[in-house]
Amino acid sequence: MRLANIAGRLHILADSGAVDVATASDGRFDADPQKIYARWTEFRIWAGTADLARARPYDREALGAPTPLPAQLVAVGLNYRDHATEAGFDVPDGLPPVFTKFASSISGPYTHICLPKGNVDWEVELAVVIGSTASRVSEEQAWQHIAGYTIAQDLSERVLQMSGPAPQFSLGKSHAGFTPLGPWLTTLDEIADPTALRLTTEVNGEVVQDGNTRDLLYPVPELIARLSRIVTLWPGDVILTGTPSGVGMGHNPPRYLASGDTLTTRIDGLGTLEQHFTAYPQDSAA
């Protein structure tokens, strides 16, 4: 099943279009896409009976983030060996670096972003959406707590991120529009192999990242198990699982996004994101 946020309303996607969940369920389920995760099991049962013949065409520009306002947006760093190396860090021994991004940075899959001052970099990431509360779960149990996967771009302004006596990871990665999500949520039964997905990033059509989630140092179930020993994960929470090598700061010389650039992000079986960048207005604080 694929779930989409279309103009702020929850839809099930079919080959012929989209079915509005609130309308099709006669109001049993809320139109708000974020609220469905609190009733995930009940919803999945109903969705299996939904009449997809009621699907209607939709405008892709109306797509929003499938999780527009998660209670927790958790990001994992250095979870691919080659990326840790290019970033100048040792491979993590134990739990990899974990930080948060602010939910105000979340946007839909097809957006225009004003570049703040500094050096804005790209990071394709598999995003995991939690479907039921997870606290101190095992790796084997972790799969049962996943609603599905979506694509994330963890856009990062490197100057702020690395400034000061301690890195400002959360702030440097939380400018407006810096967490595009989408284009929809895909449940695991729709994915041939949810442990091995190709991830790519293109800048103006040039491939700059090309990785595979089979190379995660800490795979999805292990991440959920390790995180849930400390943090209770709630329905609708989002985990960004890390990025492979090829980020801009790893290029020689470093390469960053500029006004006029188009960033295209893909993960096999999950769809595509597309971001267009413009310069920040000169008279505005950045």
Q: What does this entry look like structurally?
A:
- This protein is an alpha+beta fold and 286 residues long.
- It folds into two domains: 2-63, no CATH class; 65-279, Alpha-Beta Complex (Fumarylacetoacetate hydrolase, domain 2).
- It is built from seven helices and 18 strands.
- The strands form three sheets. Strands 1, 2, 3, 4, 5, 6, 7, 10, 11, 13 and 16 form an eleven-stranded mixed β-sheet that branches.
- The longest helix is centred in the C-terminal third of the chain and has 9 residues, at 220-228.
- 43% of the residues are buried.
Q: What are the main properties of this structure?
A:
single chain, 286 residues, alpha+beta, Fumarylacetoacetate hydrolase, domain 2, 2 domains, 11-stranded mixed sheet, 7 helices, 31% strand, globular
